[in-house]
Specification:
alpha/beta; Rossmann fold; 41% helix; globular; binds NADP nicotinamide-adenine-dinucleotide phosphate
């Protein structure tokens, strides 16, 4: 591969790398010659990846510290963090259970922040690094029922800019990928419903749901030297959803 886009030999930690989007990113980096460590809560699913792994619940700051320090100790550096761990629960805003609100914020905001902070400490010291957070369509716009998830993903946008500004002079770039609707365990039940699939196919300019591998090219770009002057940005990989929507008008061509 062109040197500019190479991730060969890079040490890449994928938090939330056992399934879905994180796993697709982890496998792609492995194929491109990176040395990948995946982390999540469930050891069995981590083992199933066949990659090096660390059990780590990002809701527990002690586990984050142990995980990041173990990777840094074993490999001597961390070149890139993919901050993918995330959860969602849907309720109307007027009755959103406080316990679910706490859970979402503990993982999606606090957990992702602490993971970035701990990896950032290693990266600032080594004078280089890439952090890629996973934002969402909800960073930019809203849908009913996901007010807390939306709040958490708005925070990911702010966190991405804040850390980018703080660490730019240390040659640590912080960006986010905002995926569109990607079929994974997180939302499988939703996309089994024909009316939901029809809505997303009608509303998305690309006329389809995304798959985890749709995010891989952007992920590699954001971990490679090709993006060394790109920081603090949220890149929407959403089939055009946030750009606009198709309409039924016949266009002469
Ligand atoms: P997924 O298939 O449910 O995978 C979630 C991953 O996060 C798993 O590896 C899970 O492993 C891990 N995880 C969950 N809670 C964790 C915790 N407390 N500590 C550590 N790891 C934890 O979900 P996905 O669809 O791939 O989503 C990944 C990310 O993309 C999330 O941040 C999500 O918000 C975002 N996203 C998804 C979509 C979409 O359409 N799918 C769209 C926009 C953004 P364990 O359960 O074993 O811990």
């Amino acid at each position: 591969m062109n040197e500019l886009f190479s991730v060969q030999g890079k040490i890449v930690l994928v938090s939330g790398g056992s399934r879905g989007i994180g796993r697709a990113i982890a496998e792609a980096f492995h194929l491109e010659g990176a040395r990948v460590v995946v982390s999540a809560r469930n050891e069995l699913s981590l083992k199933g990846t066949g990659l090096d792994y660390q059990v780590c619940d990002v809701a527990d700051s002690g586990q984050i510290a142990a995980c990041v320090d173990a990777v840094a100790r074993k490999y001597g550096r961390i070149n890139a963090l993919f901050n993918v761990a995330g959860i969602n629960f849907r309720f109307a805003a007027e009755i959103f259970p406080e316990s679910r609100l706490d859970e979402i914020l503990a993982v999606n905001v606090r957990g992702n922040y602490l993971m970035a902070s701990r990896c950032g400490k290693v990266m600032v010291k080594q004078g280089r690094g890439k952090i890629v957070n996973i934002a969402s369509l909800h960073t930019h716009e809203s849908l009913p029922g996901v007010s807390v998830y939306g709040t958490s993903k708005g925070a990911i946008g702010s966190m991405t800019r804040a850390l980018a500004v703080e660490w730019a002079a240390h040659n640590v770039q912080v960006n986010a990928i905002a995926p569109g609707f990607i079929r994974t365990d997180l939302n499988a039940a939703l996309w089994e419903r024909p009316e939901m699939r029809a809505w997303v196919e009608q509303r998305t300019p690309a006329r389809r749901l995304g798959a985890p591998h749709d995010l891989v090219g952007t992920a590699i770009f954001l971990a490679s030297a090709a993006s060394d002057f790109l920081t603090g940005q949220v890149i929407y990989v959403d089939g055009g959803f946030t750009a606009g929507s198709p309409w039924p008008l016949e266009i002469p061509r």
